[in-house]
Amino acid sequence: MNATPQSVIPLLHAVVKAEASDLHVKVGSAPRVRVDGRLRRLQVPVLTPMDTDHMLSQVLPSDLVDQFERTHEADFAYSVAGVGRFRVNAYQARGTTAMVFRLVGMGTSSLAELGVPSIVGDLALEPRGLVLVTGPTGAGKTTTLAAMVDLINSHREVNIITIEDPIEVLHDDKKAIISQREVRQDTKDFSTALRAAMRQDPDVILVGEMRDIETVRAALQAAETGHLVLSTLHTIDAQETVNRIIDFFPPYEQLQIRTALSQMLRGIVSQRLVRTVDDNRCPSVEVMVNTGRTAEAIVSPLENPPLADLIAEGGYYKMQTFDQHLCELVVSGRITYDEAISSSSNPQDLTLSLRGLGVEV
Questions:
Q1: From CA 56, how far away is CA 8, in angstroms rounded?
Q2: How many helices (H) and strands (E) in the chain?
Q3: How far apart, in whole angstroms, are the C-alpha atoms of residue 356 and residue 344?
Q4: How far apart are the C-alpha atoms of 268 and 240, rounded to whole Å?
């Protein structure tokens, strides 16, 4: 065992040097960094319980010490001068401390640089309503939302309130003014901050994640009263997103919520990251724009075509399915056929579509 426990600070320097997105530290393994989606081992000794306990003591805010001892989990932000800002999740595994650090930054790439469809920018500039960005963990939801906020910030003279846990991307005021509030540091929780936001003269409200019924209800009410609300859900596509929102509520409220959602929803952007031919990653994106037909399908799903079918047929409104976008990425040479198939919702249909476009598969 090391006489002096390892420090986390050199490891955070290594994240930036390696152009990595994440750092994983756990007992019994050398620290690993995620570079272009793959975990790579750092050339440092295997971590001991003393090492990870010391690392936690270096970064855990004092107001979360009791919570971590009680629940064995904590989310917070940590900054290192001259290195960067990190989103941190600390947890316990087999009785020992482990942590994951996600590097976040000042400012953001544009939507065009991220490679998402132009309709995402159109949705960001909607004057009111609800826009959701969804996908699994690590799919780039936060990055896309930050780019949407930056677009609003660059084009509209509005007041933007963000409620985040923790703040991941820092924004400077441009045409808009932006107040970024962090759960536990600046406010008790999402639903409390959302209720308070209504007294802060907002035009745009960003909710980092819709986690519970109180937050979902408050977000819908904010959208109903003429604000643009942006938020995320850990769902894989538009259909599951609608189902998840409805399922937050008891059965006797669900028809009312379906009606409200059909009226307030402006669009759902669902993302998956795929590996490109040059060994980087880019988003594959499904986009649902709420039209009269999709609104009817939200209110009465058994009496209307599935949302996936309406999205596939909604090219006029700039809608697209994952597989339609994967086709574009293969035809343009950005990703391989094998990568498209591994990410496809319907591999057989995708193969037939590519063949129809003259792609040899």
A1: 8
A2: 15, 13
A3: 17
A4: 11
Residue tagged 């759902």 (tokens): 268
Q: Which residues contact 300 (CB under 8 A, 6 or more apart)?
A: none
> Nearest 5 degrees, angle CA 109-CA 110-CA 112?
125
pLDDT in tens, 210-261: 999 999 999 999 999 999 999 999 999 999 999 999 999 999 999 999 999 9
Residue 50 has pLDDT above 90, yes or no: yes
CA distances from 160 to 151, 166, 241 (A): 12, 17, 24
Q: Which residues on neighbouring strands pair with residue 92, listed in sequence order?
A: 97
Collect contacts of 208-212 with beta carbons under 8 A, ≥24 apart. Answer: 208/162, 208/163, 208/164, 208/165, 208/183, 208/232, 209/165, 209/233, 209/234, 210/132, 210/245, 212/248
Quote the tokens at residue 217.
């209800």
pTM: 0.84
Query: Per the structure block, which two tokens stand in for 82?
Result: 């001259």
Instruction: Find the helix or strand (DSSP H, E) in which 75 lies.
Output: strand 73-80
